[in-house]
């Protein structure tokens, strides 16, 4: 077995690590290392302080693998702080391993304290030490231009606690490493590529970001001024929640709160709202949409030395192993509502007053322009490749829904086909509304969703269901209408409505259920697939045996439910068990409970799953594997991957060196494990990132 060097730095800086990211933090002149602890194989934990002669000697002489928890940070500190100040050598990414990545690959929390407690490791993190670390990592005060720091002389007891804390972290990291399996060779390659992409980064149009932020501030000022007038100066800012809520009630708008969903519902369903009250509500909603968070995150994390944004992708951020975002959060960029290229040119090359004449709703313009702030290196263009309808394709492939697979093989439009079945006539791309209904049907119902899922998806894609109700409800059978009324009643009374504070109105809810019934009738193999998955996972937990479900195999391993995917990768449900849980029909049913991420709070904790959710997990996991394999092939072919978003890859290359056609060919290659999966890829080139 290759020798392992576990280590951990404790650092200080005038900049906020969370705000700027690990890369820029490590390059900042004020950043320095307070101490470092390390352990080689099963030896003792060592500790060193500046000038780190013992650590540098040990680090330089070691010829094995280096392990750290969230290893990207340790790499950055080694490259930019320890190397520059103390002569520590720089090693290639191939010699690093990450225990946080290992935990995430097993479906476990990335946080060292949480995962150590969950796995009952013999060493646990010292939270008192964590408090001390936060105290010592920032300046105590500022004297003109002089930074004043806590030192071992001014805070000896605190520094001794910090040293103990650092050593404990290394011990916990060591035990965690040995408690978890190493990443597979395939996943280790993907992690290396993830690190490479995060280190390289992507260029940001900094002047454009600053220009747009200036426009945003002007818009905010104007919104506040108009808001004061609308409320007769009784409420001075749209952000004064309690004051505004009381004012609305006094003015006759009796709403329980001023959450976005509540106000949107009031604007939609209450036509008799007083004009000045309606305008105040509209301004409140507009002000809340004027978010500058992503623009500001770009400025805080971008390197002002080379204009590149780094450390923005998080490997295996979900149980499906899909990537998450850090800082700028590329994985949840708003959907453009206007043409971003035109909007950006207008904002950059016209004055603000003219801009307002062109675009009445500037909030939509600002959100639509965010993607375009990412630009290729000088002289290059982005090549963007997108797996078309990948989740619908993978779901049909796993479930054996041959009718859908045949559509993909024949290069037909699945959304038009779905709408044609729903409406009873041939829908083409020219039928934009009907096609949009078909699209949200596939997205909402593919994972056992119902009215609530349709409400979420229709809102996300801006699709009103009222026209569908007017057309389809009169043609619905008595059985469809009866079932829809029952489903809508359950939808309103369900406890899970806590997740849906803005339930859709009855006509839309009723037709959503009719659409659900028709979708399920057409996609019977997927409906059966939900049952197959739940049955297989349940049987695997209860029997302890390997249970096959189509192209997957479920089994228990050390108290966790493990699903082996077609790629050989696994999806893991820690501490899985079968329990009885109340259902929507007044009884109890067997449900799988595991330690995962709470769907409401987003924090680690006990959660539940079922056939449709298992279907969503495995579909997204397989889709992620297709993306990851394509990323590796693109990297091997010489493409420089700038970033990736969901099922898209964006490369930053000279057009003359690697063609767009070659990029499409590389992305379209079907991995051996995917067999007959009909992959479709759309590619384009652009000078600013766009959708």
State the CATH architecture of one domain.
Alpha-Beta Complex
What is the fold-level CATH name, i.e. the topology of one domain? Palm domain of DNA polymerase
Radius of gyration, Cα only, in angstroms?
A: 27 Å
Kindly provide the name of the CATH class of one domain.
Alpha Beta
Sheet with most strands: strand arrangement: 3-2-1-4-5
Count of individual beta strands: 23
Sheet with most strands: 5 strands, mixed
- Regions with pLDDT < 50 over 5+ consecutive residues? 495-500
Overall average residue pLDDT? 91
Distance between the termini: 47 Å
Share of β-strand residues:
15-25%
- Summed up, the helix count is 27
Helix content: 40-55%
Helix-strand category: alpha+beta
Q: What spatial form do the alpha-carbon principal axes imply?
A: globular
């Amino acid at each position: 077995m290759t020798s392992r060097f576990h280590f951990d730095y404790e650092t200080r800086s005038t900049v906020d690590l969370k705000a700027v990211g690990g890369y820029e933090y490590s390059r900042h002149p004020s950043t320095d290392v307070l101490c470092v602890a390390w352990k080689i194989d099963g030896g003792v934990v060592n500790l060193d302080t500046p000038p780190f002669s013992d650590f540098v000697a040990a680090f330089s002489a070691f010829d094995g693998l280096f392990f750290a928890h969230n290893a990207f940070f340790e790499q950055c500190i080694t490259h930019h702080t320890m190397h520059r100040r103390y002569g520590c050598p720089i090693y290639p990414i191939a010699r690093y391993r990450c225990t946080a990545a290992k935990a995430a690959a097993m479906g476990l929390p990335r946080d060292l304290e949480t995962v150590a407690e969950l796995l009952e490791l013999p060493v646990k993190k010292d939270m008192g030490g964590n408090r001390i670390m936060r105290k010592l990592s920032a300046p105590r005060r500022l004297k003109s231009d002089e930074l004043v720091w806590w030192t071992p002389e001014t805070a000896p007891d605190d520094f001794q606690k910090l040293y103990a804390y650092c050593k404990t972290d290394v011990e916990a990291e060591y035990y965690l490493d040995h408690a978890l399996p190493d990443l597979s060779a395939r996943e280790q390659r993907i992690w290396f590529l993830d690190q490479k992409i995060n280190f390289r980064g992507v260029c940001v149009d900094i002047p454009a970001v600053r220009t747009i932020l200036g426009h945003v501030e002007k818009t905010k000022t104007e919104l506040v001024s108009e808001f004061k007038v609308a409320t007769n100066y009784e409420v001075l800012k749209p952000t004064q929640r309690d004051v505004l809520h009381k004012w609305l009630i006094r003015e006759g708008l009796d709403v329980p709160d001023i959450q976005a969903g509540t106000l949107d519902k009031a604007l939609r369903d209450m036509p008799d709202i007083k004009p000045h009250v309606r305008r105040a509500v509209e301004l409140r909603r507009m002000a809340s949409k004027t978010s500058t968070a992503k623009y500001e995150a770009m400025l805080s994390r971008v390197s002002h030395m080379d204009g590149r944004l780094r450390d923005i992708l998080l490997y295996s951020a979900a149980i499906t192993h899909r990537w998450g975002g850090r800082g700028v959060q590329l994985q949840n960029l708003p959907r453009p509502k206007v043409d971003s290229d035109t909007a950006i040119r207008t904002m950059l090359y016209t004055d603000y007053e003219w801009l307002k004449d062109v675009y009445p709703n500037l909030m939509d313009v600002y959100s639509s322009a965010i993607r375009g702030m990412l630009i290729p290196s000088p002289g290059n263009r982005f090549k963007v490749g997108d797996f078309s309808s990948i989740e619908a394709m993978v779901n049909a492939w796993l479930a054996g829904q041959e009718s859908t697979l045949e559509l993909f093989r024949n290069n037909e439009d699945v959304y038009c086909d779905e709408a044609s079945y729903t409406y009873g006539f041939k829908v083409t791309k020219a039928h934009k509304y009907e096609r949009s209904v078909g699209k949200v049907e596939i997205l909402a119902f593919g994972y056992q969703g119902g009215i609530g899922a349709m409400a979420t998806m229709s809102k996300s894609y801006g699709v009103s269901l009222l026209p569908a109700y007017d057309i389809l409800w009169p043609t619905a059978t008595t059985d469809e209408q009866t079932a829809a009324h029952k489903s809508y009643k359950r939808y309103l009374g369900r406890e899970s409505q806590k997740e849906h504070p803005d339930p859709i109105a009855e006509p839309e809810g009723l037709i959503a259920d009719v659409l659900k019934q028709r979708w399920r009738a057409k996609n019977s193999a997927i409906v059966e697939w939900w049952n197959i998955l739940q049955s297989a996972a349940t049987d695997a937990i209860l029997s302890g045996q390997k249970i096959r479900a189509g192209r997957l195999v479920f089994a228990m391993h050390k108290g966790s439910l493990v699903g082996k995917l077609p790629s050989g990768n696994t999806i893991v449900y820690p501490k899985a068990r079968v329990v009885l849980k109340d259902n929507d029909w007044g009884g109890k049913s067997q449900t799988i409970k595991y330690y995962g991420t709470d769907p409401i709070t987003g924090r680690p904790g006990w959660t539940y799953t079922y056939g449709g959710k298992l279907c969503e997990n495995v579909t997204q996991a397989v889709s992620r594997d297709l993306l990851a394999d394509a990323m590796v092939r693109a990297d091997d072919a010489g493409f420089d991957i700038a970033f990736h978003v969901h099922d898209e890859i964006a490369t930053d290359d000279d057009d003359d060196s690697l063609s767009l056609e070659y990029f499409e060919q590389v992305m379209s290659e079907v991995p051996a494990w995917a067999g007959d999966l009909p992959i479709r890829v759309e590619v384009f080139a652009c000078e600013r990132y766009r959708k």
